[in-house]
Design brief:
The chain is an alpha/beta fold and 483 residues long. It is 43% helix and 21% strand. Bound molecules: adenosine-5'-diphosphate-glucose.
Length: 483
């Protein structure tokens, strides 16, 4: 379906992302209709988009061509079309089977294919063209994430007058890893088209500055700038800045939901259904091999095998969103997780009482908040994660100060949430011990930790993130205009 351009005026503020914040929703036998997709990024950017007469450039999420109009007076949308082979090569291939594993410590081996790269370049070109066509003179453009790393330079070629920000949602790897990429110079040059390149963590910004030096792409200087900007790259005629801007969630929105009657009742029901006095451990992730779901299941199995917990006193609920299901590594990951769940329940379950409840599905916001609230222990154990919003959402959903958070050191969120029970998910016995400790955490300590965690996610919400990035972007010089 084609999404109609809802305005033909040029816009002063543009968000460019792989996906538009809409999806098709079935309506019985009638034609499916466009719906707004919920999400922190949309809720953070929406007020800014509205105030600045902004627009969003992105793919509508379908490669078919049945025309279905989309209308939203508050949000102007500029769809970029993708065909089936581009979806395969640019999105599933280069973005998710090359860049995604490479940028996540190569926990799965990245695949390098020329045809995928060509498609990536071509699609990035198209995004740049669409953006160039609708940006007003001197507009601000904010490009999001690893699918679009060439867009900053491609856009600058066409429109040297616009101010360009880029934010990477996933980790930026150390040079030793990044240098494996056959098209490393092109990708770095793509990013250097921006005026400001933002990362989740200071380490990502430093890796980037180091890489620029290693590849001789400009004179990079660390420091000497007010934070969150951590360094600059001097190029002929202009300067690129790099900094850390840890993303967050719509804390107030989630807190309000957590206080609602619907969520509180549902949380109680979940507790009751799972067996009243049983302790509930919870995992909520996209079914991705970076999320450490297998490690978590193995540790849970270890605790059962050693009799440190039993199916009578503890239950693990794992919600896994279907994700990138045609990509080989994801298929194998699903098979692995489902085999583990089957083995654990087969070994330690009884009729009417299984230790693992596994749901391969997405859940709505109310259900998600209720699950967070029902949990005694939240397990966030990725092997590598740019930030991890689930950890922050759990904290925001616990105004009762209940629940303990087990958090991997390899999630970006660990840098901001040191009061969580931090763990190395590669160390199986440490993971077992930490999970057991979380179950036994003394009430006073648990409440104290939760209070501190909550203080942080309230102060540093997604609005703070967007403001700090955009004000850093507007402070610096840009393009050929002397700053
Ligand atoms: P993701 O890898 O997708 O994001 P995460 O940050 O945890 O990871 O965000 C997932 C979102 O999806 C959360 O808002 C969560 O509530 C939701 N979600 C997960 N499973 C769900 C389910 N079964 N049902 C409903 N909702 C579900 C990437 C990076 C992260 C970074 C974010 C934002 O990999 O490191 O934090 O972008 O920058």
């Amino acid at each position: 379906p084609r999404v109609r351009h809802t305005a033909d005026q040029e816009t002063e503020f543009l968000v460019v992302a792989n996906r538009l914040p809409v999806h098709l929703e079935a309506h019985g036998t009638a034609e499916p209709r466009w719906q707004r997709s919920p999400g922190g990024l949309v809720s953070a950017l929406e007020p800014i988009l509205r105030a600045r007469r902004g627009a969003w450039v992105g793919w509508a999420g379908t490669t078919g061509d049945t025309p279905v109009a989309f209308h939203d007076p508050d949000l102007r949308l500029h769809p970029v079309p993708l065909n089936e082979s581009e979806y395969r090569d640019y999105y599933e291939g280069f973005s998710n089977a090359t860049l995604w594993p490479l940028f996540h410590d190569a926990v799965a081996p990245p695949e390098f294919k020329q045809a995928w790269w060509q498609s990536y370049r071509q699609v990035n070109q198209r995004f740049a063209e669409h953006t160039a066509a609708v940006a007003a003179p001197g507009a601000t453009v904010w490009i999001q994430d690893y699918q679009l790393m060439l867009v900053p330079a491609l856009l600058r070629e066409r429109r040297p007058d616009v101010r360009i920000g880029f934010f990477l949602h996933i980790p930026f790897p150390p040079p030793e890893l990044f240098l494996q990429l056959p098209w490393r110079t092109e990708v770095v040059d793509g990013l250097l088209g921006a005026d400001l390149v933002g990362f989740q963590l200071p380490g990502g910004a430093r890796n980037f500055l180091q890489l620029v030096r290693r590849l001789h792409r400009g004179e990079s200087v660390a420091g000497g700038q007010p934070t969150p900007v951590l360094g600059t790259v001097r190029l002929p005629g202009r300067t690129v800045r790099a900094g850390a801007f840890p993303i967050s969630i719509d804390t107030a929105g989630l807190e309000a939901l957590a206080h609602s009657e619907a969520v509180r009742e549902r949380a109680q029901r979940i507790r009751h259904r799972l067996g009243g006095s049983r302790k509930i451990m919870l995992g909520v992730d996209r079914l991705d091999y970076t999320k450490g779901i297998d490690q978590r299941l193995r540790a849970f199995e270890g605790l059962l095998a050693k009799n440190r917990i039993t199916a009578q006193d503890t239950v693990l609920v794992q919600i896994a969103t279907p994700s990138r299901e045609r990509v080989e590594h994801y298929r194998r990951q699903r098979a692995r997780v489902e085999a583990q769940v089957g083995r654990i329940n087969g070994t330690f379950g009884q009729v009417g009482r299984v230790p693992v409840h596994y749901l391969h599905t997405t859940v709505d916001r109310t259900e998600l908040a209720a699950l967070y609230q029902a949990a005694d222990v939240m397990l966030v154990t990725p092997l590598r994660d740019g930030m991890n919003l689930v950890a922050k959402e759990f904290v925001a959903a616990r105004p009762d100060l209940g629940g303990a958070l087990v958090l991997s050191e390899f999630a970006g969120a660990a840098h901001e949430l040191p009061q969580a029970l931090l763990v190395n998910p590669h160390h199986l016995s440490e993971l077992e011990d930490t999970m057991a400790a979380a179950l036994d955490l003394e009430e006073r300590e648990r409440r104290h930790r939760m209070r501190e965690l909550r203080r942080h996610v309230r102060e540093r919400d997604v609005h703070h993130w967007a403001r700090s990035f955009l004000s850093a972007l507007s402070e610096g010089g840009h393009g050929a205009v002397p700053g």
